[in-house]
Design brief:
The chain is α+β, with helices and mostly antiparallel strands and 303 residues long. The chain has ten helices and ten strands.
Length: 303
């Protein structure tokens, strides 16, 4: 996961990477040679099919990232700057990276520098890295900014229409859990101001009880946001919807396009349990219904 702890929120602990500015980018970007190699590997997959839709490209990027090690807290380094983490990832970093790589593949400039700029535009408020408080820490704000840029659309309201009363306070209340906030009341108050603004907006979600009946409205490649029941926190985990088909009569290889094929909606994510990027064995409903910390999901579609 990523961004604060909430930005995506499974809680992470700091991990320090040995970063090399590398000759291509300014010292304002932190990355390793391994990160750049992963980028090049994924782009070899994406560029031949760059005319495909964003969801198709996103899933191809995510599949190319399978087995990538899970490491939390990679952004919690000082000084604050754009940090690229492709050789190691968490749930939000995976989603963000795959979206930005897909976006870069569709542009004329496919360079690593162009990818980094796309990443900056998603991760920081108004695309400007001006310190810890300029980084977007709550997934809800990340979604809003992507919508404002016409790069994504949240589908939760049209799918379910269930209003979600959402207050934001987790980071400021638990400032001691964040190295940048611990012992820094001024920075904590700045985060609290962002939380207050976010708390004044309207949010919608698909409750657990309504998920099964709405599965057909969730598409392959959609971003799945698992809604938290923790006070003051919006999202605990993120993933990509991942569909597959099973033929009950064994009359075809994978069931896709077969009249006997049954759709199975699962999810691809960076798993803190398996410590790597996987297609989860559980279905989406199976995961949500057995998770006590999850109240339902929010669905975001990239355009």
């Amino acid at each position: 996961m990523k961004r604060t702890i909430v930005y995506l929120s499974l809680f992470w602990f700091p991990w320090i990477a040995v970063a090399h500015p590398g000759g291509l980018l300014s010292p304002q970007v932190r990355y390793t040679p391994e990160d750049q190699k992963v980028y090049e590997k994924v782009m070899e997959v994406l560029l031949p099919v760059r005319s495909e839709s964003m969801p198709v490209l996103i899933i191809k990027a995510a599949e190319a990232m399978l087995e990538t090690p899970y490491v939390g807290g990679t952004l919690e380094q000082t000084p604050e700057m754009l940090t690229v983490s492709l050789a190691r990832t968490d749930c939000i970093l995976l989603v963000e990276a795959c979206v930005c790589m897909a976006l870069t593949a569709r542009q004329e400039d496919h360079s690593f520098e162009a990818f980094c700029e796309n990443l900056r535009q998603f991760r920081y408020r108004d695309g400007l890295s001006k310190g810890y408080d300029s980084r977007i820490h709550y997934t809800s704000e990340w979604i809003q900014q992507a919508e404002e840029r016409d790069l994504a659309r949240e589908m939760s309201r049209s799918i379910s229409g269930s209003r979600r009363g959402q207050a934001f306070s987790y980071m400021s209340v638990h400032a001691d859990k964040y190295p940048a906030l611990a012992g820094n009341p001024q920075l904590t108050s700045q985060i609290a101001a962002v939380e207050k603004e976010l708390s004044g907006k309207k949010y919608y979600y698909i409750p657990k009880a309504k998920l099964e009946e709405n599965l057909d409205k969730i598409q392959h490649g959609d971003m799945i946001c698992f809604v938290s029941n923790t006070e003051g926190l919006d999202i605990t985990h993120v993933a990509f919807a991942y569909e597959s088909y099973v033929c009950e009569h064994d009359c075809c290889p994978d069931g896709s396009g077969c009249p006997n094929g049954q759709r199975r909606l699962g999810f691809l994510h960076a798993s803190s349990k398996e410590m790597k990027v996987i297609v989860d064995e559980k279905t989406l409903t199976g995961y949500v219904n057995t998770s006590e910390s999850c109240k339902g999901v929010r669905i975001v579609r990239f355009l």
